[in-house]
Write a structure and sequence with these properties.
binds 6-O-phosphono-beta-D-tagatofuranose; 2 helices; mainly beta; 8-stranded antiparallel beta sheet; 5% helix
């Protein structure tokens, strides 16, 4: 299907009626719905769907770098470019697709991209929805016979929540984190579960491979399972920062929380011909 700007989107659905929508712009997941049609990802009411910039919401992929670096586009250029359907993807192992609805997307740098980031790569993304409604994203980045290069990556996942002050995140206890609000100074998380009462922008390091986001009011828990993604970005802009973000409503920070599977602290280095694979699986279940 095409959106109102003529951007191709792919709709995935499973036999029970759960669905997901992926845009070829940026390879960005724009929607993930339960079999009852409830939207699980946040999208700003002020989102700008016109390329080149990423839509504020869903799951933009930060690649090849996190944050700012010189003249590179903030949080990487991959999310700002058109991807294509990958007609003949090299095979993944079977459980990455059996019984799932999926689409394979491919992003290769343009000549202009290679001017700003001189490394030839192929980025393959499989977005899949299984019969239980779980959403998985498998990224494979390959160095196409050029000199070794390093990259960071984050699946910037905007979870739709009922009220940020009623949310708790578990699985990050006792971890070290880099605080983006304090020049990435390193701290150790003291608390048990993570709760929110002000702006948070942190990179938790070497987290376990399962993180839980409890939405108390909606009695709903998101589970994030990941492989090859050692770090977790946690971001909520809170009130003041929200006002400075033009494609985010002033009060919408209350209905969103970003918890991103990522590889940032230790960038991934690929030698010629080498391929990296990162897997993220999102599930949602009623909270006990
Ligand atoms: O959480 C990481 C972060 O880079 C924040 O610092 C904030 O900038 C957020 O992502 C959104 O970034 P964006 O480039 O999408 O506006």
């Amino acid at each position: 299907i095409k959106d109102k700007n003529g951007i191709d989107q792919v709709l995935l659905h499973n036999p029970r009626g759960a669905s997901a929508k992926v845009s070829l712009h940026g390879g960005q997941v724009l929607s993930w719905k339960t079999d009852r049609g409830e939207e699980l990802l946040f999208t700003s009411s002020k989102a700008n769907f016109k390329p080149p910039n990423a839509v504020r919401g869903g799951i933009p992929i930060f690649f090849p770098q996190f944050g700012n670096r010189g003249s590179l586009e903030q949080n990487g250029f991959a999310r700002n470019r058109m991807w294509v359907i990958d007609e003949n993807p090299p095979s993944l192992h079977p459980n990455d697709s059996n019984g799932k609805a999926f689409v394979d997307l491919l992003f290769k740098p343009s000549e202009d991209d290679l001017k700003i980031w001189p490394h030839s790569f192929e980025f393959r993304l499989r977005v899949a929805l299984d019969n239980d409604g779980n959403l998985s994203m498998i990224s494979r980045v390959r160095n196409i016979n050029c000199k070794p290069f390093s990259f960071s990556i984050a699946y910037h996942t905007y979870f739709a929540i009922s009220d940020i002050s009623e949310v708790r995140v578990e699985g990050l206890e006792t971890l070290d984190y880099l605080d983006n609000l304090l020049q990435r100074e390193r701290f150790t998380e003291q608390g048990d579960a993570l709760t929110f009462e002000s702006e948070v922008d942190r990179i938790y390091l070497s987290s376990s491979d399962v993180i839980a986001v409890f939405d108390h009011e909606r009695k709903r828990t998101f589970l994030i399972r990941k492989q090859g993604l050692p770090d977790v970005v946690v971001w909520n802009p809170w009130e003041k920062k929200s006002k400075a973000i033009q494609d985010l409503g002033d009060d919408e920070y209350k209905q969103m929380l970003c918890v991103d599977g990522a590889a940032i602290e230790k960038p991934i280095t690929l030698k010629p011909g080498e391929e990296w694979t990162g897997r993220l699986e999102l599930s949602v279940m009623p909270s006990i």
